[in-house]
Amino acid sequence: MNANSQANHTENQLSKIILDAAFRVHTKTGLGLLETVYEVILAHELRKQGLQVQRQVPIRIKYDELEFDEGFRADLLVEDKVIVELKSVEKLVPVHSKQLLTQLRLGERRLGLLINFGEIHLKNGIERTANGLADETPPSFGHKLLSFFASLAPFA
To answer: Which of 84, 88, 92, 129 pairs as cysteine with 112 (C-beta 3.0–4.6 A)?
Structure first.
């Protein structure tokens, strides 16, 4: 059993594991396959890491204390925390990001990854979408400097 299965990973830690696996899949398979192929293979890679992965998870619409079945399906749900939406298209378009954000909000999850296996260089086909999740990386020097100058504004 892999050590990953025994740890309670944060969304950001899972994100790194998922992206590492996606890069392995893209390297081995290349681009141009249908989305379902990447879904099956990526789920397999993540399970090899000891992670719980569900495919085609229904996400219902909740409104006025009712649930509607006409919701969406998340391609992958990893450790019941991170939604992974997969594409195999020439270029991502804004509706793909909107689809992921909708799934995050309706599914009450904090982090989603949009991965386009149709890109020659996979790094160009990855979008990270947070729904109320703070980034674990410390602010950059430029961000700190900007915050410092903004704090001086009332004195100007």
So the answer is: 129
